[in-house]
Amino acid sequence: MVVRQETRPGPGAADEPPAFVAAVATMRAARLRPEIHCEEMPAPQRIAPFAAALSADVTVDGEEIGTGRIILLHDPQGNDAWDGEFRCVAYARAEIDVELITDPMLAAVGWTWLTDALDAHGAAYHMASGTVTRVATESFGGMAEESAAAQLELRASWTPTLPTLSAAGPLQVVGGDLDVAPHVEAWGELLCTAVGLPPVPDGVAVIPSRRGQRGSGA
Fold first, then answer.
1. Is the pTM here over 0.85, yes or no?
2. How does 2-11 read in b/e, with b if 16+ C-beta sit within 10 Å?
3. Which residues pair with 129 in a beta bridge?
4. Mean pLDDT of the chain
């Protein structure tokens, strides 16, 4: 996977920090389902000194039924609002059955799709926050013949952390560089769950998704 790294170095930070370079390398190593077409995208320049971003579309039988993006932010000086040096920011949008739009539990269930996916992939994190929005569309007048449509949108952010060991005594942080691959894979699972794809059975290996660079000619 090719990930474009859009950076805005701060004073005295002419080069990308090794910790950020290592974290982005793990983003490239994430394995996503074949229904997900993952591409690079420009990352925001004003949120953090360093950032890398991916976008994805979920396509089934030639029809796009979901889309999303995930951004990895890094501030070597740390950020009090993140309680850390890294932050994941994710967005997911999926087409859903119109009948589901009035389900009072839909938003809460949508949020658990994210947290359950993070836990299932062993993605250690804290300080998670976000919103779940449902959108219903009905057409009138000259467009009255078009069917009603509904979408679910989830916006979330969380601080990825190194895994911990809880073997005798207090939790101890496992050393090494931050591995962002589980967070990207959890985001991919969120996209697939939101559009209604069945989970991959246990023991079945996930092959790499289609990856490319929109508009790059690659």
1. no
2. ebbbbbeeee
3. 157
4. 81
